[in-house]
Amino acid sequence: MEQLYQQTNRLILQVQGQLNKLGTVTADNLIEVEQDIDNVLQEVSSNCDKLNILVNKEPPHKRQSAKIKADQLIYDLRHLQTAFHNYQQRKIQREQEERERDELLNRKFAPNSSGETSIMIDHALQHNTGLQNANRGLDDMISSGSSILTGLREQRYTLKGAQKRILDLANTLGLSNTVMRLIDKRATQDKWIVLIGIVVTCAIMFLAVKYLT
């Protein structure tokens, strides 16, 4: 198993190097390199399947370590397969874009041979109309936003005026409370004065009646 593991690991390193050099390979050798990468990936996949079988044949004390090494190779394989697939997709897309560009550059338009010119003009007009509609929509949004800001500003002034009136009312209420407290205090004092006066008057009358009669 160890020998197969080392061999598979070398193949993975080989594919990594080839993938890194794909951007510098000449067009004449590109197809050959791509085919070589695909073949090596298939060989690595086959080796990983064999390693999964051999892991179960390892002694119990080595099985866990062997399983980890095999799983690492499988992970590297999946990563390389994904990278190679993405490269192929980008290549196909790039070739398609180049073909479409060449077709557009090589296309010849006759004055009245077809309706392609009018179609292109209609497309341009539709595009321009769409831009104008978008601009009008933006203007409406800006106008609406300006109206909202103006309304918020007016509400702010209104709230500030209300806050000032509330503070004035609070100050007035505070003054009224002070006056009421003073009045209550004076009323209490007057009540005690009256009571003391009544007591003193009663005492004088009692003494006068007692000593003068």
Automatic annotation (TrEMBL):
GO terms for molecular function: SNAP receptor activity; SNARE binding. This is Golgi SNAP receptor complex member 2. The keyword Coiled coil applies. Pfam families: V-SNARE_C. It is found in: Endoplasmic reticulum membrane; Golgi apparatus, cis-Golgi network membrane. Keywords: Acetylation, Coiled coil, Endoplasmic reticulum, Golgi apparatus, Membrane, Protein transport, Transmembrane, Transmembrane helix, Transport. Belongs to the GOSR2 family. SUPFAM superfamilies: SNARE fusion complex, t-snare proteins. Its main location: endoplasmic reticulum. GO terms for cellular component: endoplasmic reticulum membrane; ER to Golgi transport vesicle membrane; Golgi apparatus; late endosome membrane; SNARE complex. InterPro entries: GOSR2/Membrin/Bos1 (IPR027027), SNARE (IPR010989). One of its GO terms (biological process) is protein transport. It comes from Actinia tenebrosa (Australian red waratah sea anemone). The chain crosses the membrane at residues 192-212. Involved in transport of proteins from the cis/medial-Golgi to the trans-Golgi network. It comes from the Eukaryota. It is a single-pass type IV membrane protein.
